[in-house]
Amino acid sequence: MNPEMMHPLMYEYLNRSQQQAQHNAPSHGVSMMHHPSQQQQQMSSSMSNAHHSSNMSNGGSSPGSDNLDKQDELDARRRLKNRERVRKCRKRKQDRLNFLEDRNNELEKENGELKTKIMRRGDGSPINKAMTEEALLELRAKQTNTLQLVQAIINEGMMSFEASAKSVWTPNATIVDGVTGEKLTNIDVIVENKRISASVFSNYKIKNFSADWQAHDKAMIKWDIEASLRPNAPSSIALSSPFHQLAPHFNNEMFPFHMVSHVTFSSDKIAEEVRFVDVAKLLSAVVSKQRDPSKMAEIVQAVASSAL
Hints:
The chain is an alpha+beta fold and 308 residues long.
């Protein structure tokens, strides 16, 4: 209808109705978008559940599953470390067993050698282990005679020493300085050492001795000795320590000292002698004779060189 031919009130009424219809149409569309139907809600819930089930079936992990994996990894590492510790412990144990076995073999070998040495005399004949008391007393008497002969031939001089040395020592006898380790190795060397020691000692006398008997072939002998020293004594003479060190401080002046010998006999002859000078008594003797305080330190040092 042409608006120009319409009554104004009619036109306004119709126009208002159209505007109201246009206004209500968008509002209904928005309401439909914000309020889905019950069917749509059910479909959404089903899809969500299906998606969750799919994740679970495809290996999706939970926090509890992660913790189990980490614990398994820690256990595996711990097992590896324990295996390594066990391997090292077994190796240390085997090394220790090998060492003990080697040491045991060494000791058994040494014991065998010592047993052979003990069971044989210097001349190669076996020792009679079942020695009677009477036989032992007889042997002790012969050994005492040998020690008395040592005293005599040393005090009487070189000719007597050379003539009787073979009655005192076995052919392969040894005399050892217990501190320096210097050694005389047979009867000829022992005789020669006695000869050249006169360049150290201007006088050497055994005043007395005592014997502490041990096994049937062993004794500890304590010698009481008086000696005097040459001022220019050489240092190259074996078994002359510490006397060649003291010599420059004493000009042929007699002084006493004590010496201990650990002696091993072969029957009634000396097969081995290990000598030790009694340092305390020697120091007491030489200090009492020294009147120059400035030399005291040198004297003490010289005597100390013979101490263990």
